[in-house]
Design goal:
- The chain has about 325 residues and is of the alpha/beta class.
- Helices cover about 35% and strands about 20% of the residues.
- The strands form 2 sheets. It has a 9-stranded mixed sheet with strand order 5-4-1-8-9-10-11-12-13, sandwiched between helices. A 4-stranded mixed sheet has the order 3-2-6-7.
- Helix 1 crosses helix 9 and helix 9 packs antiparallel against helix 10.
- It starts with a strand and ends in a 9-residue tail after the last helix.
- Bound molecules: 2-keto-3-deoxygluconate (KDG).
Amino acid sequence: SPRVVTLGETMVLINPAESGPMKYTTEFKKSLGGAESNVAIGLARLGHDVGWISKLGADPHGEYLRSFVRGEGVDTSHVTTTQDAPTGIMFKERRALGESSVYYYRHGSAASTMTPADLPEAFLADAEYLHLTGITPALSDSCRETVFAAVERAREADVTISFDPNLREKLWDSTDEMRSTLLDLVAAADIVLPGIEEGRALFDAKEPEAIAAACLDRGADLAAVKLGAAGALVADDSTTEHVAGYDVERVVDPVGAGDGFAAGFLAGRLRGLDPVEATERANAVGAFATTVAGDIEGLPTSEELEVFRGERDAVYR
Ligand code: KDG
């Protein structure tokens, strides 16, 4: 059974063929997006046994997502299909200047109808890690209940919980509700992986050291604060260390880098690496994710990662 299990919504991702304002964009490429399946795919590429729990619509989009994620080697045996709601869709907008935006068509989606009854008992209890994000509890009341039920079952079964806050303000009714829900999940998690801006939004803290300390104060054992190209700050109760990042010559799209980071971090821990070594891997996998427009196409295999990190010679032809 999978060593890592994730839970969350995956959508058809409609990516513009070129950057520019959405209003004038006429050509798109289909891909898929979903923070948790991104992490699962990242782990599978790195050679780990990983499962993804979700719900899809009984439509061609759901079939596409299931076969894609499954084709990447992720265990989808606990992804269900519902006749009552469609698969979610999202559009990305890429601008040459400034940040990319997203537009969601996921309200009332199949995944938003997940309930605690959709949680497979043994599948979850037999895992070593449960990876959650702050997106799922924003999708609906029943999704929030499902996330907290998963936390409870993981705790009972001694499954380590990793949590990426993944702030998505568009999905929440209010900032207060977002903060209080995500802080509850920080408190429930063993490993917390916030971006620096997310940390600033959640805690009364500015510097990465203070954000990591705030995560540990609330009960986490390990926190890694993502600093983009500057790498990450990783802390546990005995050490706090800045781990340098990688310079990516041409960043195509930073979305998905955080999921790559989580995949690299968990992969490192599964291989028995210490937090600093796991963070080095995490930075590298995150860097790979920024090299493509989609979220997952750039994620490395373990061979590619070793070549990139100079641990192995490449044979190209
Ligand atoms: O982390 C990348 C995700 O944001 C993207 O894949 C889409 O899951 C997604 C979301 O809800 O924004």
